[in-house]
Every structure is written in structure tokens, then in C-alpha cells.
């Protein structure tokens, strides 16, 4: 898949997740970071990985988001 298209799809996925009502538990479990700030940080790292070719074999942004949700080691500098 084209990297620009993959980035666009990932942006849409994280925007959807960050604004989702189901993220209420997120704010109940952490007081230091808003869901928007968390996903913005995550998105910047994902975009960097996409640009570096980490997800070249993935077929959609949803697939990338799911993989990262299940395993943060996809992100080389995640802390």
C-alpha cells in the first residue's frame, strides 16, 4: 500500500478512537495524559515507522493500528 494512504488511514483510525465514547475508561485510569494527547504522540511515532517502511506489508491503517495496540514493539522508540 502507498505510505501516504496508509498514514491517512492511520490518522483517521486514531482520530476515531480518540474521540470515541468508549475511551471513557482511559480518563478514569490515567490523570496525566488525555486520550487526544496519547493518540497524538502515538500517531507521530506510527507515521515515523510508516515512513521508514516498517508497515509496508500491511494492507490498511486499521491493520496497523490493531498490530500496534497488540504489540508496542512495532514502534522502535516507544516508552
Our count of helices gives 4
The tally of structural domains comes to 1
Q: Helix content range of the residues, please?
A: 55-70%
Helix/strand structural class:
mainly alpha
Global geometry: globular
* Total number of beta strands: 0
The residue ranges in which pLDDT falls below 50 over 5 or more consecutive positions are none
Description:
The protein is mostly helical and 79 residues long. The protein has one domain. It contains four helices and no strands. The protein has helices spanning 3-19, 24-29, 35-51, 61-70. It is globular and about 35 Å long. The N and C termini lie far apart (28 Å).
Question: What topology does this entry show?
Answer:
Layout: H1 3-19, H2 24-29, H3 35-51, H4 61-70
Helix pairs in contact: 1-3, 1-4
Amino acid at each position: 500500500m502507498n505510505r501516504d494512504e496508509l498514514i491517512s488511514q492511520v490518522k483517521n483510525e486514531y482520530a476515531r478512537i480518540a474521540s470515541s465514547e468508549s475511551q471513557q475508561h482511559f480518563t478514569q485510569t490515567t490523570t496525566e495524559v488525555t486520550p487526544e494527547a496519547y493518540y497524538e504522540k502515538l500517531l507521530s511515532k506510527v507515521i515515523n515507522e510508516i515512513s521508514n517502511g516498517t508497515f509496508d506489508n500491511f494492507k490498511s491503517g486499521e491493520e496497523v493500528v490493531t498490530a500496534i495496540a497488540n504489540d508496542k514493539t512495532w514502534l522502535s522508540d516507544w516508552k
